[in-house]
Amino acid sequence: MNYLNCGKLYSQGSCIYFxxxxxxxLISKIIPLFAKYSINGVKQVDFLDFCAxxxxxxxxxxxxxxxxxxIIKIKSRMNNRRDHDLS
Length: 87
Known about the structure:
Helices cover 48% and strands 11% of the residues. It is mainly α.
């Protein structure tokens, strides 16, 4: 939180969560951090999908229903809905 100068830490039981609230912080701080220090394993594919959604959302002045459909399609294959066989 201090390093990135954004977000807030929350604890729930034995877990600690880091939440970022500003879209600009996601674009300028979080995505570049994980682009530089890539995620190992299948979560890298989900991160790339997350980046694609962020890119679609970044252009909010020209955001269309077609863009929303793309986001819904990307979300439908993320996390536990993805076939993680990357071979």
